[in-house]
């Protein structure tokens, strides 16, 4: 289980951060923030609350957390003698902060260090998960999207030499505290908010479909889908509606908490590699792949699909299976928030698909998929999504 021990949520939640940090003895922070947020009202608001606690702002982490950016940020953290990290942004910034904390604890200073600590997976169920030393600095996460990365102990870091995204995991890497303040999301670009909401939907759907699902995770994800179905499209069109934004943040929280226990599956595994290869946001990869993955798994998931369809408010009619209803509900939500739904529309290259299929077979998240999978199956899914 993650070691997150405080989640503050609601309007003006950011005001609680100084007290949360003080309880952890944190007084010198490296802030990981996207370039679009650096210098914005979000940074100004953070500085109003934290003042000199902000030792440095690092805003040069590209999408998908390249190793080089993590090493640069970790070097700054060491030189500034920080005792904590703060992430402000989406999944990239949150994972980057986790990665910096890992580098500081494990003395990772080069590619070999990353290779020593990444998860190794052989299909169908062989895992090697290296340990991370105990001396991990506190991480305080302030999400501005619905990626849900703030609620997991997983980290995705991209090796740019091979264009592969590798995963790292330890309960010690979960953020120490999370602040869900809807006001911090109002400047997030509409397309990014909508896409990240589809990522949260993907978390919930794949948790329910997972071979590791439980009644508890199913209940969390059912509520998450209801919240997101009700509020996501509205909150894209009305970014100043902080009530709707807060409901989406809560939905993302429920879904990401569930996947920590249940795991995800094939949509995520393919999405990790599509994102790393083509520099596509994970929300877009979810929009592209999740409907295809539901269709691929249809024969194995009818009972589970009924739960998904019901959460979207769908009634099953004669001639329409539960999997069909779940598939159609996801497709319609993707369309309503205006997210690209094909690899070609998202800027991919068809000649790269075979290599991506091979990389997916090494991604440990496919182990939870409810139906066995082969590299040929993956390639057919990629072609269908082209």
UniProtKB/TrEMBL annotation:
User: Which E.C. number(s) belong to this protein?
Assistant: 1.14.11.-
Any single GO molecular-function term of the entry would be:
oxidoreductase activity
Report the residue ranges that make up the Fe-containing alcohol dehydrogenase-like C-terminal domain in this protein: 195-386
Domain (Alcohol dehydrogenase iron-type/glycerol dehydrogenase GldA): residue spans on this chain: 6-182
Q: Which residues cross the membrane?
A: none
Key words of the record:
NAD, Oxidoreductase
Q: Which InterPro entries does its entry note?
A: ADH_Fe/GldA, ADH_Fe_C, ADH_Fe_CS, Alcohol_dehydrogenase_Fe
Q: Name one Pfam family in it.
A: ADH_Fe_C
Family according to the record? Belongs to the iron-containing alcohol dehydrogenase family.
In terms of PANTHER family, this protein maps to: ALCOHOL DEHYDROGENASE, ALCOHOL DEHYDROGENASE 4
Report what the protein is called: Iron-containing alcohol dehydrogenase
Protein's organism? Rhodococcus baikonurensis
